[in-house]
Amino acid sequence: MRSVRIGIVGLGNVGSGTLRLLRRNVDQIERKLGFPLEVSAVCSRSVHTKPGDAVALHPTAFRTTSWNELVTRPDVDIVAELVGGTTVAKDIIESALTAGKPVVTANKELLADHGAELWKQFRERGVTLGLEASVAGGIPVLTALRDGIAGDSIDAMIGILNGTSNYILTEVERTGAPFDQVLGEAQALGYAEADPSADIDGYDARSKLAILAALAFGERVRPEQIPVEGIRRIRTIDFAYAGRLGHTIRLLATARRESEGLRLAVRPALVDKSAILASVTGSYNALWVHGQGGDTFYYGRGAGPEPTGVAVVSDLMAAARTLRKPNGQPAPPFAHMSLDDHTPVSSGTEERQFFLRFRVRDRPGILAGLAAILAEQGVSIEAVLQEPHFDKSDLPFVVTLEPAKRHALEAALEVMRGLDFLVDDPLALPIEPTLTAS
Asked: Are residues 264 and 400 in the same domain?
């Protein structure tokens, strides 16, 4: 039977991993599909000068530096866009749509910004759009939400969606090394980019949460509608105090359906050590989903050439099946036939227990002064923790709070920032309530 022919644009880590998997698993793929997948064309700026070992595995594939040439070739049935970014990638996808060709992409930024409008265009043209590799590449979470638990009504979803940040946090906790040192090690290992901002400032996880929210809740969420806070201020002392409370710290992407609406956020938070997400270490990703049917949990490598390549190849196989059997009705890529506009819920109305870490130049009356500022906003202290033997000129201690509205806490923190005994601004972390049971 004639093969379905693939054109791959972008030969970086994900593109190369995809090429290797397509060659290594060629027989297994054909057995599952009933026909072969063939790489008929590849494209990158250096495909002629530095094609790489993965390209050599497909010696008959046409090589070009022009993505437009690849997209319009008659021997390309499906286009895999693996270049990243939101400009050229969007042009590639829209050109493939104009040519009536299915597209597979791993582009979380583009899908978070333009996924709903792209899907509408693909739907109107009757062409498939595969996006499994865009979120937690090694874990089929989108397929699970779209198909596996499609019959459930989801109430809450909490995930560790950035492997770089999770690696840094767990290494700081495990080794006690300074944050900047562990970040450098992550860069040396290839877990973090030279500019790590997207990872450690939470923007990567925010894009992924926007995509997940569309599938789980049927809402069109713009990334900028999601409050975000990164992990730059987390230190070893924070893990020491969190440990005394029976918790650890993770960068969490959270979504909860509440009476006010859908509440979304990406923030570092304290997680009870008995909770399943607390056991997610290193560069792994995980997603916990709570619905009317109970809890489900998804875990695995969130990034890397092969885990993400598996998701790309799986989407290529699904698109190939649709080409061969066009009368089938696959589930829409965002799980819903249409998406409602998301109305953000004010983060100030969120009520949580909080962990406040202070660094102060010690002197009498500090705790009383801080307690008075909190009391003015109606916020009560639950407990005070202070490890002994610290430098009195830079003394860290922690206050845990009774449940309080975030807007009240923020008002108190704004007053505190002007206090002359603070070495730096207080660090406020929510204590995650949903995951206290294992």
From this structure: no
Catalytic residue numbers, as ranges: 208
* 122 and 214 housed in the same domain: no
224-227, long-range: CB within 8 Å, 24+ apart, which pairs? 225/264, 225/342, 225/344, 226/264, 226/265, 226/266, 226/344, 227/264, 227/265, 227/266, 227/267, 227/347
Question: In this structure, are 256 and 177 located in the same domain?
Answer: yes
Q: DSSP label at 2?
A: P
φ and ψ at 355, to 5 degrees? -110, 120
Structure tokens at 262: 């859908």
Phi, psi (deg, nearest 5) at residue 167: -60, -45
- Provide the residue-wise pLDDT of the chain in tens; the chain has 438 residues: 789 999 999 999 899 999 999 999 999 999 999 999 999 999 999 999 999 999 999 999 999 999 999 999 999 999 999 998 889 999 999 999 999 999 999 999 999 999 989 988 998 888 999 998 898 877 888 888 888 888 889 999 999 999 999 999 999 999 999 999 999 998 888 778 889 999 999 999 999 999 999 999 999 999 999 999 999 999 999 999 999 999 999 999 999 999 999 999 999 999 999 999 999 999 899 999 999 888 999 999 876 778 888 999 999 999 998 888 766 556 666 667 677 888 888 888 889 999 999 999 999 999 999 999 999 999 999 999 998 777 889 999 999 999 999 999 999 999 999 899 999 999 999 999 865 433
Q: Count the domains in the chain.
A: 3
